[in-house]
Amino acid sequence: MLQTLPRSETPSGVAYVDRGQGGETLVLIHGVGMRIEAWGPQIERLSREHRVIAVDLPGHGFSRPLDAAPELPNFVAWFSGLVDELGLDAVSVAGHSMGALIAAGFAATKGDRLRRVALLNGVHKRTPAARQAVEARADEIVSGNFDRQAPLERWFSDAEKDGAAYRLVHDLLQAVDPKGYAAAYRAFATGDAVYSDRWPQVTCPALFLTGDGDKNSTAEMAEEMARAAPHGRAVVIRGHRHMVNLTAPEEASETLADWLTWQPAR
């Protein structure tokens, strides 16, 4: 049975958890079809030393749907409004997959509110063939006739399909609201190039982490973004795919813990 973390809710209807204190204030943004529980290992590890806030995306978990067109800039505006609503000043932000695109947009547009940024399994400038494939999946999802099992084949290797991470992600995909999923996936499918040329202007510490088996959010994408950012660092975890924060929780969490204290040379 899917275990639900206790949540609070903002006046605008965003569900979130708030754990820990001290250190950096870190906000976690999950990917399409997921919810706060997909960050379980990172919330537990990082809240020992930092304040950690994890949010449900619009139309996911217990958050209200997005009241705007399903485009990436509107999700970025939603997140910026949440930072204001929670009364946060400067924050560190880590996003996974769709959450990584939102984090990138926040870094590009609200750099004065950002201490550091981390993209986990973030997509960057898809090839034409990859764009066509993901937009076709978005069309299928919007139609309401989509296979909730299909992402599991891309996100997990055969060796990972008997694990707790696989079971959790399977259950989250089964539970997600179809309309919320479709809106977020449309923005994900069309958003990879919106802020992709802005990394040279992002001067805070920037981490780009993925698994070497992720064929859609590739190691090459992570390395390209890291080269473009003045203080970028790419980390590729071997033997893992798209849900690397769950299939390699200790390594991913420790990499994030290091990033939260990393001070690049001036």
Automatic annotation (TrEMBL):
Keywords: Hydrolase. InterPro entries: AB_hydrolase_1, AB_hydrolase_fold, AB_hydrolase_sf. Coiled coil: none annotated. Residues 26-251 form the AB hydrolase-1 domain. The keyword RNA-binding does not apply. GO terms for molecular function: hydrolase activity. Gene3D superfamilies: alpha/beta hydrolase. PANTHER family: AB HYDROLASE SUPERFAMILY PROTEIN YCLE, MONOACYLGLYCEROL LIPASE. This is Alpha/beta hydrolase. It comes from Rhizobium wuzhouense.
